[in-house]
Amino acid sequence: MRFRTDDATGLWPGNNVTLSGFRIGKVSEVSMASDGLVDVTLLILPRYRRLIGPASHASSAQEGLVGDTVVILTPDITPAGESAPVVDLRLPFQPASRPADLLKDLAETRLQLDTTLQAIASVVEEDLPDAVDQVDGTLTDVRRLARTAESETVRTASVTRETLRLYQQTGEQIGSASDEASTALQETSPALSETLREIKQLSANANRILQQLAGTFLFPPDEPQSVSPDEPPVLPVTEPLSDQESAPNKD
């Protein structure tokens, strides 16, 4: 298998080829193509060929600060039972970052950091004094409010204590009155029940006497009268009883 690159810096025949940090082969040939690119041919041990497939990628890296360049492959495992690809694979290649590129990236990052720090310093220089003044004003208001609350508390403490004492005394009086009323109700409940029973019995006796007197000479029955539809009804007039009629018959 092979790959092409426009920068073969550090790539020489004999460089190690690794997969997941494990050496599985070597670089067998590095040659210049007619289009100006560099062809790099890899020699992979047969027992590891099934771990490399069309989806694998190649990249290069340096071992340590002064070590040799190694070629790093990503796995594309052939399923068990299938044969490894025997065709000449051409893998995509990602060259290693060069020190110059790293220094360039570092310089750009530092420039961005400097710009950010300048913006922060400008914001702090312009807005921080106002913020500090606002905080100081707020703290002053809080201290003034605390002094006012303290003075009001001292002034109203005696009145508050007296009010609470009166509330407590009133509550005790209400509780005592409630207990006395409950006791009186319990004491008068039997007598009240007996009185109500006697009143009920007396009412029943009066009704029975009135029913017995109904139809006697004391309460004669009303005679029906014919009433003309054109005349209003005439109510009967009850004449008072004379002394002889009202006196009971001694015979």
Please list the strands of the largest sheet in the order they lie side by side: 1-4-3-2-6-5-7
Percent of residues in helices: 40-55%
| Major beta-sheet overview | 7 strands, mixed
Q: How many strands appear in the DSSP assignment?
A: 7
Which spans have pLDDT < 50 for at least 5 consecutive residues?
none
Number of helices: 2
Describe the protein's architecture and organization:
The structure is a single chain. The chain has two domains: 2-96, no CATH class; 98-190, no CATH class. The protein contains two helices and seven strands. The protein has helices at residues 99-213, 243-246; strands spanning 2-5, 16-19, 22-32, 38-44, 58-62, 69-73, 93-94. Strands 1-4-3-2-6-5-7 form a seven-stranded mixed β-sheet, with no helix packed on it. A hairpin with a 5-residue loop joins strand 3 (22-32) and strand 4 (38-44). 47% of the residues lie in helices and 15% in strands. It is an alpha/beta fold and 251 residues long. The termini are far apart. It is elongated. The mean pLDDT is 78.
